[in-house]
Predict the 3D structure of the following.
Amino acid sequence: MTNNTSEIKEIFLKDYTVSNYQISTVDITFDIFEEYTLVTNVSKFVKITSDAKNLELNGEELDLQEIYINNKKLANNPLSNSDIYEVSENFLIIKNIEKYTDENSAFTLKTIVKIDPEKNKQLMGLYKSDGMYCTQNEPEGFRRITYHLDRPDVMSLYTTTIIADKTLYPVLLSNGNKTEAKCFEEDESLGENRHMVKWEDPFKKPCYLFALIAGDLEFTQDSFTTMTGRNIILQIFTDAKNQSRIDHAMVSLKKAMKWDEERFGREYDLDIFMIVAVDAFNSGAMENKGLNIFNSAAILCDQKSATDRDFQYIEAVVAHEYFHNWTGDRITCRDWFQLTLKEGLTVFRDAEFSADMGDRILKRIEDASYMRAGQFAEDAGPISHPIQPQSFIQIENFYTQTVYEKGAEVIRMLQTLYGKENFRKALDFYFETYDGQAVTIEEFLFSFEKTLDIDLTQFKNSWYFQAGTPTVKITDEYNSDEKTYTLVVEQSCNYPDKTNNPEHKYTNYHFPLQFGLLNQYGKNLDLGEQSDILEIRKQSETFVFKNIEEKPLPSLLRNFSAPVKLEYNYTLEQDLFLFMNDSDLFNKYEAGQRVARRVITDIMLEKIEEFPEAVLNAYLKIIKNSDLSNGFKAECLTLPALFTIVEPFEIYEYKKAFEAKKKYQNIIATHLKEVFLNTYHKNQKDIYSITSNDIGSRALKNTCLSFLSESDTDYTNLIMTQFETANNMTDKLRALALLCKKDSQEKTNALFDFNAEWANDPLVMNKYFAVQASTPNEKSLEIIKELEKTESFDLKNPNKIRALYGAFGRSVINFHNEDGKAYEFMANKIIEIDIFNNKASSGLVHVFDEYAKMPENLKLLIKIQLEKIINSVNISDALFEIVTKILKSGE
């Protein structure tokens, strides 16, 4: 931590150099005691470069006890002027290393350090939470465990020995396969009532993939037979009270293993695959080789405590972390600037898996909506960066929607451009060529170039090196005499130079534009030999279609074929026509969203005299269309996110947008309330299941209930009845959220009952916090302050921070209050959290990302709080980096 800007160091991709040393093997022993843990690390080094004089190892918050080289103990002389070695806050430097190397430039280093996992509230490295020891080492946590070359291009074979009290910590886990286990009765040197377990991982890995678990856990076991007939043991560990909640995760894991074999030919390699659930975890999950560690929120679920969205999320995250075995573990990143290499590719893989397991079009809508409401905002905001950043102060700040979700869309474009079969061929080459290596984005793209005989230079230079969201403007013209139809496609980007690379020249984007042409009856015109995917490379391109008998209506950017903003001058009537007739369901949904944004914006700007009856009729037809799934109908009825409404404007006036959206919903709800009510009752089901059809029925039912709650009739009794009789959390939580919108005795009763039932369940209480924090309410800040005093809230738990403060900050109506008190409250919380968990604080501060877009009165109030944060004593580098960029965006 620092409050001295001169100590802040920015790291650049262009400065990357190969490590002077590699470590062939790591034999690491953990001797766990209640007061401390002793870590003995015996590593075999090989000196790679002849000019390296010293060995510089990363290490933070380590108490060095002893150090040996080639079994010879070095004197305890950690002075800064020592010619043997020196210890600083972040490094152990061994001087004149060449005098220790043998004829093969090799030597063995042994260090013994003492660490205190109990006091480790950063939740990086080895820490203790709720009586269990666990690790989180990505990206740079291993240096908090032992002195090491903490960089992903140093890959080693690991042997791990764990020694601990047998009663307190009966389960001792690490990567690989268990090779030995014994207890005090067999070996008295272990100490009374202590036991030891040894694990060996036969695959080389970087230290960020190292994992350790020690605790009193139960496990559920299953097995999976691979495509070559190998039997893999599957184990999911959790505390005893949650063991019944892991069935869905186990089913999801087996589905993912089978799918990865069938879709990408990837077979699991170890004899055992383990997952452990942890309550206090900074992220969703971690793909440690053979031992995935999961945030409890991403692994535990059942009908009563989890929503449909939770079930889908868990299925996706289990798959994501498993898929990392090949895209992240077997082939890893050379350096952290290559992060999207593993994350973008794996997000794409888990999205394809989820689409195959559920409803493909709903998954595509979900991903596109997430991109537009989240990643597009990130692209337009203060931390805008390419999917491959060129520099950073703290790499933790670049685990972003850009690197992950936009990175996945970039991968998807390769599949769209070159086809599924060719995409698979290129990935096969990638897996076969680079297995066991730490590689770069260039090597990934080379796999496509080599296999398909193509040149992806423009694709790489635009999508990987440039920040911002491209805008694609399309105009058209129909020539009735020649029967030709012309599309002119022009591209631009408002943020072409945030690469921190002065040598980079702006490059036009290379992307696929999927489209269709509709006749007056809403049918797709036959394009003949013309593909429905246009390959765009130039700033402006013209496409002429012949033998077109009538002027068509274009359906553009079908299936969200590229992560771009589309500009085409559709009229309201044309959008309504597409909403009713487009055969491409994604664009059918898109047209409905444009209709809603247009009318809501007109209401906001007071440009509308009479609500268009055609809009009401369109929603009615969608609801009654028996050819559409209930899940798709629910998406069509879901109104646009507030960000997508304010985004076209220079200043974001969320309050006006919120009121306009509320009025829009009220008008629709009032006119169609009988239809909504009938649809609601029609989709009531006594038996709960998580099939796509049933999930869709609940989604439609609850969307109808949301509209009814905004109509001119009071449906509080209906909502309360759903809350009281719901047999699943999806229905109960939606009812609770709707009750929270209005002050009433029913709201008070529902909150009391919910708390009484679930107060001892941390995961469900996260929902309790979030639903109140996110519901617009003039007294929202008072509510937050009361909730943080409850026994169920724990400031040291990242899930609680996200559920309460994160939800409050994302609720723009609550947060951007004109008195500025919410800003002051949040700034104080960020400063407080930064002291013990800078990953949580630097994540939370993003609630201020739209600082530059706020009205001047709010902007001034935010600036005061941002300056307070940046001037706080001992601000972390991670938080400093984000706040600096936010402030700069408002200059």
Observations:
- The domain at 334-565 is CATH 1.10.390.10 (Neutral Protease; domain 2).
- The chain has 27 helices and 31 strands.
- Residues 737 and 771 are 6 Å apart (CA to CA).
- The chain has a mean pLDDT of 96.
